[in-house]
Predict the 3D structure of the following.
Amino acid sequence: MMSPRQAAFRAAYRAQIAPAYSGLIHVALIYLIGGSALWYAARHIHGASLAEVAVVPAVMILANTFEWFLHAKIMHRPVPGFMGIYNRHTLAHHQFFTEDAPYHDSTRDYRIVFFPPYALIAFLVMASAGGAVLGQIWSANAGWFVVCAAAGMYMNYEFFHWCCHVRDDRIIRHVPFVNTIRRHHIAHHNTAIMMNKNMNLTYPFADWLFGTSDLNRGLLGHLFNGYQTRFVRTDLSKPRGGPPPAMAAE
Ligand SMILES: [Zn+2]
Ligand SMILES: [Zn+2]
């Protein structure tokens, strides 16, 4: 059930989306830029060694930790210089989507589901700088693998986040990793835990590593948890879905 407050926020947010905005063009742009970067970088890789290929899982782990850091320390904290990110995420995305009403209604709502394309460009510039350094000090293949893996992880992030906020889950509820992150992220939209739990959006690796998950189980259990709720911790800040504390009700 959507609260009147959330419904009012949605109406106000939708009213200020530019009439010319197209959610499908927004998404197409992200995947065109990300896909081109991946394709361009992949074309430069020739005869890679096993060590060079190992750059891919290493970057995936780094990107997963970076995603956790950005979400926990920038998107949910009012840090001077990054207030736009905090406003867009904590004050808009989390008002638009709550644990009780986490679904978007139309492609115009993509405005608040997907990051603006310039975030991807900033991310690719950072990854390319890292790739260039690695290319200089070790091998060109390794440097290009950095760009490939970073672009792939970014598109992975956006796709999984969309999977969290789409209403129809008849297929994705059966897809490993996607079902895990969907439960994980919708739980994160519970205002009681959103400031300090379930910060990952791809795979809940860093949440498991840093103890910021709402689950109490091992790494493999975290990754393949799916929709299960029997491992949800019982010591979370407030009972999830329970009645609000007496003081807040007054
Ligand atoms: Zn979300
Ligand atoms: Zn959040």
Residues 140-165 form the longest helix (26 residues). The chain has one domain: 21-243.
